[in-house]
Amino acid sequence: MTKAELVNHVAETVQLPKSKTEAVITSFLQAIMEALHKGNKVELRGFGSFGLRHRQARAGRNPRTGAMIQSPAKTVPAFTAGKAFKETVQQNGAAASGATHDLVTHMQTPFWRV
Description:
3-stranded antiparallel beta sheet, two-stranded antiparallel ribbon, alpha+beta, about 25% strand, single chain, extended, 3 domains
């Protein structure tokens, strides 16, 4: 789902114009980025939390030339899904994978055995 699709979906759900909905979503995302920039953690109960993870410097290899290069230490944003989010994905994922499994099993069976 793209940001535009998300804006359309939310605008239809809450009965707001798309321009106002886009402004709200943009402000929401900007607030998360600003909080992380300041070093804070953002927790959305039931959804998840946004935080920073620190990666240590490491030695790597340029795949084109094979030369060893040093990758510097850096801080990267990270998202950890909340319990309710994980449970929702598990329930929907289990239902979808079951249907896919039945379809795959059916497709692997020769048509004269169906």
